[in-house]
Please model this.
Amino acid sequence: MMAKQKSVSVRKVVRNNPAATKNARVWKFGDNIDTDAIIPGRFLTINNPDELATHCFEGTRDEFAKKVNEGDIVVGGRNFGCGSSREHAPLAFIGAGVRIVIAQSFARIFFRNSINVGVLPVVCKDADRIADGAKITLNIRAGYLEADGDRFAIEPVPEFMQGIIDAGGLVEYAKKLKEAPTCTR
Amino acid sequence: MGTTIVEKIFSRKCGKDIRAGEVVMAPIDGAMIHDITGPLAIQKFYEMGGTKVFDPRRVIMLFDHQIPADSINAANNHVYMRAFAKEQEIHNYDIKEGVCHQVVLEKGRTGPGEIIVGADSHTCMYGAAGAFATGIGSTDMGFVLKFGALYFKVPETIRAEVSGKFQKRVGPKDLILAIAADIGADGATYQAIEFCGKTIGKMDMAGRMTCCNMAIEMGAKAGIVAPDKVTWEYMKGRRKMKPFVLESDEDASFVQKKTYNVSNMEPQVAVPHNVDTGVPVSKVAGTHIDQIFIGSCTNGRFEDLKEAADVLGKREVNPNVRVLIIPASRDEYLKTLKAGLIEKFVKAGALVEAPCCGPCMGGSFGLLAPGEVSLSTSNRNFKGRQGSTDAKVYLCSPATAAASAITGEITDPREV
Model:
């Protein structure tokens, strides 16, 4: 009954950098893009990323689901992914082939969900200066991105999340743990 | 240097001094899953190699978003979760009890000083009971189900001190909409908001729940009220706990200190399409409304419905507006029923539905068509939240909703 999901690891996203290797384009959005906009409530009975992707940004930007290509990048302004905790939002991105989201800032739950399921959230204070349709290359280790030739700094992922990325996402991280190393020990 | 209530909760749990900014793997006292985010969480639990949940007594399961099942997909999700509950010996409240956050509190599934997570962003509501409560995604929840622990970056705290006495027909929802407008939709991201001061001290649990519920609308990880007499009174008969002192030290390090005075506060309305857009009701009075929703985890308690009934008086709902009233839980429904309010609402021309999330989640029923306008006591007015992205949602208190139900347009509850 439950559709098996594609196994995606953020580590691979970082290593393969789909944006740099493909003719990826930017889908530009504004501030406060909420998870209701990414995937409306009426589609939350769906758990399959490919099916979710067909409704991604429905009503907000209908062309997205039709025209998005593997490796495309979503760029937002401040507070990207605010609102509902629905993990269906980053899963819809996975189904759509989007592995990287760049924003000036992210809402907390979406940020964590993204890393957990294999979408890399990249904080770039100048994300508002990236144009819709721009071509982007990311250099995550060096800490910058280039959009249509302009170079902007990006922030490193918080250290404790890096461990989860290195493991290949939270599922992989959890598989290796016999028990959780809690603060009580 | 003293510590905040949040730092104290983590320090108590870990048995050592923990400060904001530290990353800890903390043990979890409770974990809540519902019909929307639960199926994915269970799937992740299995993918992580989970076979038995960390402690079935600490897992809270219920269905509230799409009940009774409104599609075959929803019914399938319910079936999947019921099977998991049976396999894992988890008590499942199923579709019978109401909206998750209300049920967790009224069934005493959390209490002061505890760390509880829910696969729903409004989990922060349990801060009303002095718990550190935060919403998480399904994969994090899968991890919690397996290990009974989760990584947290201990948040800094914004202290919001509230003083003054509410005018008649002005209350906690107006306060929290005003606070959200002040702090902004991302003004508390990665932080906790502690509500304190004389006004909070006098506020009942229902009002505290409304305030803590909407902490997430400012990006906050948690909202919290230090447990006091009101809290411990509420805990009686719900959760076996001996009262203890849990409060921020006066010399604790707060990231911000805010003060609010409610004495001259007007009823507030958040205008489309963000929650931090609260304005005094006078600025939007007269706006035509197609649908009114009184309910949700934010404002579906007996106190809210009583306030709405008081405003309504013996008057009927305006023929040009449809009114949906949904108590937040079975207990709240029964209280409303016994007080005679359900009959009153039905006679006035409102639809009273069984406890559930209703139109708030914009996926089950009560959806809006393009061009329609909703006035809602719930917590979000995002574009498309209650249906069409060409519809509009305004947020308000139960009193303002009831006053507007009489006139069919946004109306100051002090003037009807």
Strands of chain A lie at 26-28, 73-76, 100-103, 120-123, 136-139, 144-147, 150-153. Confidence is low (pLDDT under 50) at residues 1-7 of chain A. The CA atoms of residues 3 and 48 of chain A lie 6 Å apart. Chain A is about 30% helix and 15% strand.
